[in-house]
Amino acid sequence: MYKILLPTDFSEIAQNAIEYAVYLFEREPCTFYLLHAYYIVPSETGTKVDAGNALGLLQKRLEAAKNAKHTFKNVLLTDTALGGIEKTIAEKDIDYVFMGTKGSSALKEIFMGSVTTSVIKYIDNCPIIAVPGEYDYDIPDDILFASDYKHAFTSLELTPLIKISSLWDSIINIVYINSKNDFEDIQRSNKELLQNHLNDTRHRFIQVKKKNSVSSTLKDLEKQYKNIGMVTFLKTKHGFFEKLVREPIIKNMTFMTHVPLLVLPENQ
């Protein structure tokens, strides 16, 4: 039984992320927690009672699909969005958090600042799936998993990715973007370790030359592999994901992925 957290502010962007999560897990027994964190600010309209009523209507709409494997529960908290998400992850032992992002790019929103940004930045104990607001969801035939092989992956870190890939028998494409001709010994060892962890999954290793930046190279890969339905990174303090964050091309919003982004927490 999967436990999936679906934060909502009742916007179309949040609704799209909710519907994608329900679709992605449609064949799996799941409890979906619909979370609204009610936080009073001067510009806020509506009351906590209104929010509770809206949650109830949302629950009824989702239950109308009559998927016997799915259960929906409402969580209404007086808290910030980040605080409410953090608290619910701990109390409900959440497996995944699905969040909508503005515009057409999950990565753009993450690096330009939002609630999703804060969740990815501060939540270190749960996989986060950021869904572009305009994403017209489909089965993720291919999952792009970017790695520089400088991290020794644990089975615990990879489990959320492996489970996602198993939902629709997706292929995990491990992409190594190199600027050097040869692997270092540690990279070779970590690649073998990763291979062992993924033995029971459909996967393939792809090695490409770095172009102007990591992000522009990934953008070209997305064009090349038309069936990519998700991009995945491991969130490490000194690794590949941090390197991507620092790239000016990201801050200029030139890397525009149109598919969900799965951010895996590092096993501390």
Write up what this structure looks like:
By secondary structure, the protein is an alpha/beta fold. It contains ten helices and ten strands. 38% of the residues are buried. Helix 4 crosses helix 5. Strand 6, helix 6 (155-167) and strand 7 form a beta-alpha-beta unit. Strands 3-2-1-4-5-10-9-6-7-8 form a ten-stranded mixed β-sheet, sandwiched between helices. 39% of the residues lie in helices and 25% in strands. It has helices spanning 12-24, 48-63, 81-92, 106-112, 115-122, 155-167, 185-197, 214-224, 240-246, 248-251, and strands at 2-7, 30-38, 70-78, 96-101, 128-132, 142-146, 171-178, 203-209, 228-235, 261-265.
Low-confidence stretches: 104-113, 245-256
Helix/strand order, N-terminal first: EHEHEHEHHEEHEHEHEHHE
Query: Helix share of residues?
Result: 25-40%
- What is the number of beta strands? 10
Proportion of beta-strand residues: 25-35%
Shape: elongated
Offer a few descriptive terms.
elongated, ten-stranded mixed beta sheet, 25% strand, alpha/beta, 10 helices, 268 residues, 10 strands
SSE layout and pairings?
Blueprint: E1 2-7, H1 12-24, E2 30-38, H2 48-63, E3 70-78, H3 81-92, E4 96-101, H4 106-112, H5 115-122, E5 128-132, E6 142-146, H6 155-167, E7 171-178, H7 185-197, E8 203-209, H8 214-224, E9 228-235, H9 240-246, H10 248-251, E10 261-265
Parallel strand pairs: 1-2, 1-4, 2-3, 4-5, 6-7, 6-9, 7-8, 9-10
Antiparallel strand pairs: 5-10
